[in-house]
From TrEMBL:
Annotated HAMAP family: Beta_carotene_diox
Predominant location category: membrane
Cofactor: Fe(2+)
Protein name: Probable beta-carotene 15,15'-dioxygenase
C-alpha cells in the first residue's frame, strides 16, 4: 500500500535524470499490460463468467500472496522517519499502527455504509498515487475515483451486490452514485492519460488499460488484475529500492512477517465468525474490511513521510535543480 507523492527520483526516474526526459517503463507496466490484455481478450472472446465464489476465493488468495506484502514494509519506513529506534518505541509503533487498524474495523461495524464511502475516498487518493506523482493530489485522486467507479458503470448491480455484502443493503446507493458519475470520470481519466502521455507514455498506457479492463471484465476480476499486477507490484519494487541500503534478507523478513501477521488475524476472524454467513461472504468482508483497516494507518504513515519530505525540500538550497542532482543519500519517503 505505497508510493510517493513527490518528484523524488525513483527506479523509473533515476537520480540524475534531467527533468523533461521521459522515464522508461518499469517492469510492472509490462506485467500489468500483458495480464490486462490477456484478461480483456478472454472476456471479450470467451466470456468465461467465473462464479462470484470463485472470484472471491481468487481475490482472497491473490490479495494475500501478492497484494498484502506491498504494505508490509511500513515498519522500515517508520524507522527511516524516526518513528522508532529501539525495542520500546518499536512496540509503541506496532501498538499505534494496529490500534488504528482495529479502530477502522470497529467503525465499520458501527457505521458500515459511511465507512464504505470513507474507504472509497481514501482508496481513490491511495490508488491515484500510482500515477502523475509530479502533480497535485487532486487530479490523482480523480484518477483513483474513476478507477473505482468504472466497475459500477459496467455492472452497477454486481457492484451494488458486493457493497451490500460489505456494508448492508443501504450501501447499494453508493454503487448507483458511482454509476452516475462513471461517464464523466471516464472522460476525465482519458484526459489525464493524454496529459500523462507527453511526460510518461507508460502511464498513459496503464490508465487506458485500467479503463478498458474495468469496462470489459467483472468488478472483482478487474480489481484483482489491477491490484496485484500494477499497484502492489509497483510499490513492492519501489519499497525494495527504498530499502536497498538494508540487507535484502532483512527487508524480505519484514515483508513476510508483516504479511503473515494480518493473515493470521484474518484467519482467526474467519474461524470466530464461522457459520454467521456463507464462507464467500465472510471472505469478501475479511478481504475488503481488512484492506480498509490496513490502508488507514498506512496512509497516515505516507502523510508523515510526505510532510518530512516537504520539510526536506524546503531546506534544500537549490530546489529547482534537485531532480538533476546526483543521487542524494536516502531521505525518508513513505510508499503508497
Ligand atoms: C469493494 C469493491 C471495490 C472497491 C475496492 C477498494 C476500495 C479497495 C481498496 C483497497 C486498498 C486501498 C488497498 C491498498 O493497497 C471495487 C473494486 C470498486 C468494486 C468491487 C467491490
Ligand atoms: Fe496500496
Amino acid at each position: 500500500m505505497t508510493a510517493t507523492a513527490t518528484t523524488r527520483p525513483t527506479d523509473t526516474e533515476p537520480a540524475g535524470q534531467a527533468p523533461g526526459i521521459r522515464p522508461r517503463a518499469p517492469r510492472e507496466t509490462y506485467l500489468f499490460t500483458a495480464t490486462a490484455l490477456a484478461t480483456i481478450l478472454a472476456f471479450l472472446l470467451a466470456d468465461p463468467e467465473p462464479p462470484l465464489v470463485v472470484q472471491t476465493v481468487a481475490i482472497a488468495i491473490l490479495a494475500a500472496v501478492l497484494g498484502m506484502p506491498h504494505g508490509a514494509l511500513d515498519p522500515l519506513v517508520a524507522r527511516r522517519l524516526g518513528l522508532w529506534r529501539g525495542a520500546l518505541s518499536f512496540g509503541a509503533f506496532n501498538l499505534v499502527y494496529s490500534g488504528l487498524a482495529v479502530a477502522v474495523v470497529a467503525l465499520w461495524l458501527v457505521a458500515p455504509a459511511p465507512s464504505l464511502v470513507l474507504f472509497l475516498v481514501v482508496s481513490a487518493v491511495h490508488f491515484g498515487g500510482d500515477w502523475m506523482r509530479e502533480r497535485s493530489p487532486a487530479p490523482r485522486a480523480l484518477a483513483g475515483a474513476a478507477l473505482l467507479s468504472l466497475p459500477a458503470l459496467r455492472d452497477e448491480d454486481a457492484v451494488a451486490g458486493l457493497y451490500a455484502t460489505l456494508a448492508g443493503e443501504g450501501a447499494r446507493s453508493v454503487a448507483a452514485a458511482q454509476s452516475a458519475l462513471g461517464l464523466p470520470l471516464l472522460v476525465l481519466l482519458l484526459v489525464l492519460a493524454v496529459v500523462a502521455a507527453r511526460r510518461a507514455p507508460h502511464e498513459a498506457v496503464e490508465l487506458g488499460l485500467v479503463a478498458l479492463l474495468a469496462l470489459t471484465t467483472p468488478p472483482l476480476v478487474f480489481f484483482i488484475v489491477y491490484f496485484c499486477t500494477l499497484h502492489s507490484a509497483r510499490h513492492l519494487r519501489e519499497g525494495f529500492a527504498e530499502e536497498r541500503e538494508q540487507p535484502r534478507r532483512l527487508t524480505a523478513l519484514v515483508v513476510v512477517a508483516y504479511t503473515v501477521i494480518p493473515l493470521i488475524a484474518a484467519g482467526v476472524f474467519l474461524a470466530a465468525t464461522a457459520g454467521t454467513a456463507s464462507l464467500d461472504d465472510q471472505l469478501l468482508r475479511v478481504v475488503f474490511i481488512g484492506l480498509a483497516a490496513l490502508t488507514v494507518p498506512h496512509m497516515v504513515l505516507v502523510g508523515l513521510g510526505d510532510r518530512a519530505l516537504r520539510g526536506d525540500e524546503r531546506a534544500s538550497a537549490h530546489p529547482p535543480l534537485r531532480a538533476a542532482r546526483p543521487a542524494a543519500p536516502p531521505r525518508p519517503r513513505a510508499r503508497r
